[in-house]
Request: fold
Amino acid sequence: MGSHLSPWPTYTSGQTILHNRKPCSDDYRKQAGWQQQPQGTTKPRYLEQLEDYLHKELLLLDLGTDLAQELRLQPYREIFEFFIEDFKTYKPLLSSIKNAYEVMLAHQKEKIRALEPLKAKLVTVNDECDKRILAMRAEEKTEISMLKKEKMNLLKLIDKKNEEKISLQSEVTKLRKNLAEEYLRYLSERDARKILIADLNELRYQREDRSLAQSPGIWGEDPVKLTVALKMTRQDLTRTQMELNTMKANFGDVVPRRDFEMQEKTNKDLQEQLDSLRDDYKEVRKEHEILLQLHMSTLRERDQFYSELQEIQRTSTPRPDWTKCKDVVAGGPGRWQILAEGKNSDQLVDVLLEEIGEGLLREKDFFSGLGYEESVPPFLRFDGVVENKKPTKKDVVKLLRDAWKERLAEEQKEKFPDFFFHFLERRFGPAEAMAWAYTIFENMKLFRSNEIMSQFYAILMEERSESVYIKQKEIIAELLKEMTNVDSQNEGLLTMDQLRTVLKSTFPFKKEEKIQELMEAGGWHPNSSNTDLLNYHSLFIEDEEGQSVPFVQKLWEQYLDEKDKYLKELKQLLGLELHDEVTLPKVREALMTIDPKLDKQTLNSYLSQAFQLPVTKLPEAGEHKEEGIVTLLQTALQQLQVADIRRVGSREQEPAS
Reply:
């Protein structure tokens, strides 16, 4: 291996290699010059082999893994081991150097391995700290915005108080100025009075001196003595004047007690006003804080409602295009236009379901019996299969009209379901009665938009009292009679004014807007004249399928609305929840309050319906056993909803306070 060694690259082109000597030695000074050798010296063969080996090993390595640096170190470690093996003389030294590096590398690896969990924990802690910092910044931002708002409000309040302070200061300055002017005026007046008194005294003294000089014998005294006495008196006067001047100098700025008391009273009044303003300010500030809280809650509710609105807009389905049904419904566009006229989307869905259900019902040949359970209506109690008679809607409506005629003509009233089944037995025979009962029942369930069917179904299922239907028919007959009486020429025509008069006389408790609704349903419109004629018989016409004209429909809708309003007033006056119990005296008192003109018979019928007691068993008002009759408020209202409930008179208005 020694034959392969050479001094390269000591003499490579343009390169200089310093020998391993101390910079301060003599040899270093002797050979301090540059040494240059001829160019063109090639690399040693052994060096080229090692470089080729290293290059190949590095190319074979996969440097895309996490251990790339350790793998890259391995070829260099092998090259170093080759050097140690080839240089036997330096092998111990090179081995110790290698071992020292290996120990250090192992130590560093262990240290890195120990720090790996700490690094992961540090990353986690760093993320948590970042989140906390962001949360704290958000909280600080919210708090800063609130503090800024509060600062602006306080600054406005301070400006207001400063304005009040300036106003008070200007008032105090004005009062002080007025006080100073009054003080100067009184001081001048005092000085003038003192000067006047001094002048008067001087004149008196002069007159006395003149008198003494003119008649010395009058007093019987020596003039010299009197002159000396006068001199002494004048000295006393001078001394007294000096004392007076001293007093004036010492007490010249003293305020009179009266002025002091007046100023003290004014100051006290101003202090009371200031205390009152402070109290008002505290109250206003509390109200302001409450309003701020209310504003914030309102903002939150607004944001919540806006989010709900966006969610509803995102998830809601578009309005259906009902014109697509005209080509599907039997009868074509003309019949669909008649069916859809004046109906909203919910009603159109019912119409469409009825059209679909009618087709399915006609395809059905038999009905399955519902059995003999208590929950089954009496006229449907049958176990087996019954035939579907498949009548048309007109046939069902005609049959129900005949049933009503027979029911109204009955003298001995039996229960309505029993009457209905007996009517079918008389009409079709006992063998076919059950089949017809199921057929008519299914048709009534299907055609809920039909007035006659829906009302007959509600009475049959005891959801509504038959007195409601009878009373409605009586009102319509009475209204037609009134119109006929007004029509003196028997032409079947009325003017709009006459129609309004008849409606007001027949329905005295309806408001003007309700009368207007009936007028519009009867054919009145804003461009109509009061003298326009109306065929009033057309207001009560029913078609073959039992559908009334809009006028009668509006009467029925107003009756239902008035009943709901009547029962809501009753519930509101009782002041109870639906699940609370209510006694008979409370209901009696509430009914008399909302409808003071109720007669005893009508009142007892309402109470009998609400508490499901016969009228004969109802106790009189004031009896002790009244308190023992209780029921749930929800039950009482449901029972009253079934019956014919109407307002007898207008509710008395409470006097304005």
About this structure: Residues 91-214 form the longest helix (124 residues). The beta strands are 366-368, 385-387, 493-495, 533-535, 581-583, 630-632. The radius of gyration is 59 Å.
